[in-house]
Amino acid sequence: MGTKETLAGLLAAGGEEYISGEEIARKLGVSRGAVWKSMKALEKEGYKIEAVPNKGYRLSAENDRISRETLTAMLGDAADLFSLEVYDSTDSTNTRLKSRAEELPDWSVAVAGAQTAGRGRVGRSFFSPAGTGLYLSVLLKQRELLHQAGNLTTAAAVAACHAIETCTDARPGIKWVNDVFVEGKKVCGILTEASVNFETGAPDWAVMGIGFNVYVPEGGFPEEVAQIAGAITAERKKNLRVRLAAAFLRAFHEVCAVQGSEGLYAEYRARCFVPGKQIYVLRGEKKIPALALDIRQDYALLVQYEDGTQEALTAGEVSIRPTEPRWD
C-alpha cells in the first residue's frame, strides 16, 4: 500500500482528532514534503481534508468518499474477514462478483458509491446514483451458509437494521420479505443470486447484494419510485456511507454465524411490521386482499384471504393496504 493510501486510512481512523504533519510523517516513515503531496493527491480524488495551523489534518465533516482504505480503517480488526474491492462507480456490484465467483475467495466484497446497471428483484432496475447511496455485494461459498441460501436475504435485512441503528438515529423495520423501511419509506433493497450445481441441486456459491438510499438524491427520486423510496437520513454526516458499509459487513458476518437460530428468527419477526396488517398479495397484475397473520419459522408469511382460507407465502410481494376496518 502506497503513502497516499496509507494516509487515507490514517485520517479515517483518526476520527475527529487532528493529526499533525510531523506525526503523520513519523507514522508513515516519509518526509513532511511527501505527506503534503499525498494530501494534495487525496484532495484531487475527492477527499475533503481540513488543515489547521498548529493542529494538523483531519477529514472534513463534509467528507463522504468511499475508498478501500477508509473502509478497512472503519472495519478495524474485522477487516481481515473480508476481501475488499471498492469502486467509485461500477455497473453492478453483484455482476462484479458473479463474473469471477469461481476464482474469488469466500467473503469477497464489492462496494460502490454508484451503479450504472443496478438490479433489483424480478428483473427491475435499482436506482443507484452517485454521492447519496451505498451499494455492496458479498460472495458466499461456505457450505453451511449455502445450505440455507434462501434465508440469506432475511439475514441481510436484519443486519441492515443493525447497521442503520448503529450509524444513525433512524428506527428501521422490515417489510416482508426483505425490504427495509424508515418512516414508511423503502431505504434498502436486497437481491441474492446463486449458482446451482445441477448434479447435487445445491448452490456452489451465492452473491448477496444490498443497496442503501442513505440521502435523498439531488432532484429527488425518479417518478416511478418516488412514492415508495426514501432515505435513511436528511442530515449529511461525516463518512456516513463508509461507516454504514463497515457496520453492515460486521453485522452480516455475525448474523450469518447464527443462521437458523431461534434468536435470528425472533429478531426478524419482531422487526417485520407486516403481521397484523391488511395487505394485498401481488400476483402479476392482480392485487388480492388478505390479512397478514404471522411470520413462520421458515420466514414464510401466513395470510388469510377474505373467504377465510389461509396460505403460507414463501416468496412473492405484498403491499400494505390503506387503513380500513379490520376483518377476521
Please explain how this structure is put together.
It is a single chain. The chain has 328 residues and is an alpha+beta fold. It has nine helices and 14 strands. It has helices spanning 3-14, 21-28, 32-44, 68-75, 93-98, 143-146, 152-167, 240-256, 262-271, and strands at residues 49-52, 56-59, 83-87, 108-112, 133-140, 173-175, 179-182, 185-196, 203-213, 278-283, 286-295, 301-305, 310-313, 317-320. The strands form three sheets. It has a seven-stranded mixed β-sheet. Strands 13-12-11-10-14 form a five-stranded antiparallel β-sheet, with no helix packed on it. A hairpin with a 4-residue loop joins strand 12 and strand 13. Helix 4 crosses helix 8 (240-256). The chain is elongated. The protein starts with a helix and ends in an 8-residue tail after the last strand. The model has no long low-confidence stretch (mean pLDDT 89).
Features:
single chain, 328 residues, alpha+beta, Arc Repressor Mutant, subunit A, BirA Bifunctional Protein, domain 2, SH3 type barrels, seven-stranded mixed β-sheet, five-stranded antiparallel β-sheet, 14 strands
Mean pLDDT: 89
Note the quaternary state here: single chain
Number of helices: 9
Helix/strand order: HHHEEHEHEEHHEEEEHHEEEEE
The strand line-up of the biggest sheet is 3-4-5-9-8-7-6
Structural class: alpha+beta
What gyration radius follows from the Cα positions, in whole Å? Answer: 22 Å
SS strand fraction: 25-35%
CATH architectural category of the largest domain: 2-Layer Sandwich
Number of strands: 14
Q: Tell me the span between the first and last alpha carbons.
A: 63 Å
CATH superfamily assignment of the largest domain? Bira Bifunctional Protein, Domain 2
